[in-house]
Amino acid sequence: MHQRLFSLSATTWRYITNQSLLLPLVLLLLLTNLLSWSMVFAFICPWLAAAAIYLYLGTIKDAGTPIFQSIQGRVLMSAMDGLRHIPVSLCYMGLFALPLGAGRLWQIVRKHDVWTRKHTAIFVGFCCVSLTVFFLPKVLFIAQSVLFQKESLWLNQYAQRMPLLKGDYLLDLAVGNIQLPGVNGQPVVSIGKWWWPITFAALGVAGLIFLKSVDTFYDVRRQKDENNVLHSRSNQRLFLLLWGLIFLAVAYNPGRFFVFDRYLIPALPPFILLLAYEMNRFKLKGAMRLATFSCTLLYIFSVVCLQDYMGWNSAATAAQNKLMTVYGVKSESIRGLDTFNGWYNSDNFMRIYKTKKWQDANLTGLGPWVFDDEYIVASKQPKPGYEEFDRIPYFSWLGMQQREIVIYKRGKNEKKDILF
Hints:
single chain, alpha+beta, four-stranded mixed beta sheet, 11 helices
């Protein structure tokens, strides 16, 4: 009974956290030798419930955004995304787990763990293959331009260093304000090429994770060959490894156009636990101090970026509210935050354009849920023909200085395109 209740609760949680249904699958893979019919039923329940809900939504003609999108016209792009997904994802895991990775590297350098030529080959091989995959789109773009006098611009959109995912919230140094027009790609604070050492450090930690994955699978295979019984710690490590790898794998979907870095966060806890397990085997004060120092720096960076994100976001929201309450501007005439436009304009937008799909939010070409961009809320000049109308200041811990969100108004001589 408890198993059934836990599985049914997992179904509900699935629609909150998106990936909780995968944990029963991981357990199922581990308990194949101990299965009973009640356990099988408990594991299947959440999947059956999810299938029933999916079929029900499929019968509603006015269901809105489809779960999957057509990949016609972007097959090659989807294939490239799939090829890059695991190396890129593990590199992000390495970035987020840098403190533990630093401590683990300290243990290896101080020779408190066995490190063989085989380990070196696997570690270096993973790093080299990953870097090759990172540079592959750029190499293909240059080769196509030189050999065939032809350019596929989509190949030139991939990054070779961190941040590796396009459209991320981790935008250069800060948590980027990608929702503001004219800002994406040019953050207020940029460290540029300084990302290269960070990329190599993250890739090094990712190599340690990959190496531990290979060792875990090897240990499991060797123990099963000997007596077909796994030790408890091997079982635990296998569970964590399957948890992390499956969560990373499902983040990629050829029917979705983007993978955001936040989609990878559910896979972080098991990999952190794997690294922590390895560090715990050799209790070195130097490794612990290095891990603690690195963790403190990462924590400070996270808090500073969060404050910066909340600072400009609050200022942008205040600017939009000021336009509506003080200046009497209609929401349909404002190009601001995507969330602001969606909150005030999405119902009318979908009614006028006869759509229920969020992919159609930019049918006007002016931004998500925007009818007219007479007023634009941004942190810099969005495009020619606009004049400064008002400013909303905010203080950012990122650089410890005051910055401003600016309201721009379209010039009198500029063409207007208003639906209301």
